[in-house]
Design a protein that fits this description.
The chain has 431 residues and is mainly alpha-helical. The protein contains 17 helices and 11 strands. Helix 4 crosses helix 6. The longest helix is centred in the N-terminal third of the chain and has 26 residues.
């Protein structure tokens, strides 16, 4: 009797396992075409269009390692699950040589490689699935026009089980459905173009979205802010005025920020500096205006109630005030008002009322204190002023003291930073 009951349980378990496996298989083969070659005529106009789209997607940013040939891959992309190494996109046999436009479309739209294997979502196919077939073909033609570079692909260094196809298939079944961008008829052409660029090739929420334990976001319209733990930076929420929202900016200021990396409110630093340098500064004024329209339309979330700091670090603030006078006031001003260039223009950003200083997450402020701040050298701002790193000069307690002072000086009102906060941030990115 007991043996029969055990057999029934095993059969039920097997049936459930087969059903789950079938569901995962089906969900991993949605909207997939064949792999037959679909020749695309290469013309100078199509190559030029593809080159522009590659800039819009900042493809070289990931697919070029420091000191390496453009688009030849090799750059490590850190993730919470291990490192992923960007592949070679040049038309060499070690890259996209032998690929067809159909293979390339499958990679962008379905997250599937030429050999049929599933790609890791560190390659943001969840965003690139929105790219139109015409734009995918133009991008492919451009990449095929590049000089071929022999660069063998370095195997990813993902921990088990994240390095298995079963894990990737399960992740996709849970979080990915391929779908091209569909314009909203109740929105303007500019809004739809901005949404297409921001959600698709621009993959802005790959950084500016919160991620769950498995690395999935809340969707392509989620810009609620996310911690880039391996980098030690926080991508601020674009839905919150106290963080990264541009809803209250003038359209001209948003476009200036995306074009030059500098605006009256501050300077682009960290990962955003790389995005502006390699991507948005190269976009047309029309596309920048479209992105501005979309970004300014994002729904705004009310600020969370401020947590009252019932243990103010008054001693730390006093130490920070002295450190500010010794190291920072010359550039940023005694009252944190910033510094101007000779002849006008912002040289050193104001710290009074600066959102980077007062955000609830102090990661970016600490990162700049530790590693310095370097704005992108763009065509519109070719000689930006930089800030030296202080990690070798200030210990954890002094960094916390300086940050705490900045977050309370000149009307700023944010929680203190404690030495343990500095230590936690350093441990997240491995020192």
């Amino acid at each position: 009797m007991r043996r029969a009951a055990v057999r029934r349980v095993l059969w039920v378990a097997l049936g459930l396992l087969l059903a789950v496996g079938a569901a995962i298989y089906a969900l991993n083969h949605l909207d997939e075409g064949g792999t037959a070659a679909r020749p695309v005529a290469s013309t100078s106009a199509l190559i030029e269009r593809g080159a522009y789209l590659a800039l819009a997607g900042n493809c070289a940013g990931c697919h070029t390692q420091r000191g390496g040939a453009p688009y030849a891959g090799g750059r490590a992309i850190p993730t919470p699950f291990g490192s992923v190494f960007a592949p070679n996109l040049t038309p060499d046999a070690t890259g996209l040589g032998g690929w067809t436009s159909e293979h390339f479309w499958a990679a962008l739209h379905n997250g599937r490689g030429r050999d049929g294997r599933l790609l890791t979502p560190a390659f943001p196919y969840t965003n690139y699935a929105l790219v139109s077939r015409a734009d995918a073909d133009a991008l492919f033609v451009y990449l095929q026009s590049l000089p071929p570079v022999a660069a063998e692909r370095r195997p990813h260094e993902l921990r088990f089980p994240y390095n298995t196809q079963i894990a990737l298939a399960t992740w996709r079944a849970l979080y990915f459905r391929p779908a091209t961008f569909t314009p909203k008829p109740d929105q303007s052409a500019a809004w739809n173009r901005g949404a297409y660029l921001t959600q698709g090739l621009g993959h802005c929420n790959a950084c500016h979205a919160a991620r769950n334990a498995l690395g999935a976001t809340g969707g392509l319209t989620d810009f609620s802010g996310g911690m880039l733990k391996a980098l030690g930076w926080y991508a601020p929420s674009l839905h919150k005025a106290a963080e990264g929202s541009v809803a209250g900016w003038t359209p001209a200021a948003v476009a200036q920020w995306l074009k030059t990396g500098s605006a009256p409110t501050g300077t682009a630093l960290g990962p955003m500096s790389e995005v502006i340098l390699g991507s948005t500064q190269h976009l047309t004024d029309t596309d920048l205006a479209a992105m501005t329209t979309y970004l300014q339309s994002l729904p705004q979330h009310a600020a969370a109630d401020r947590i009252i700091d019932d243990r103010p670090e008054l001693k730390l603030r006093e130490i920070g005030k002295r450190l500010y006078g010794d190291h920072c006031a010359t550039c940023h001003g005694e009252q944190g008002t910033g510094g101007m260039r000779e002849g006008g223009g912002l040289a050193y950003p104001p710290l009074a009322g600066n959102r980077l200083v007062t955000m609830s997450n102090p990661a970016n402020l600490l990162a700049i204190i530790q590693r310095g701040g370097f704005a992108p050298a763009t065509t519109g701002n070719p000689r930006p002023y930089g800030m030296p790193p202080f990690a070798g000069l200030l210990d954890d307690t002094e960094q916390a003291a300086l940050a705490s002072y900045l977050r309370h000086a000149w009307g700023n009102d944010a929680a203190d930073v404690r030495p343990v906060d500095v230590l936690k941030l350093k441990s997240q990115r491995g020192g």
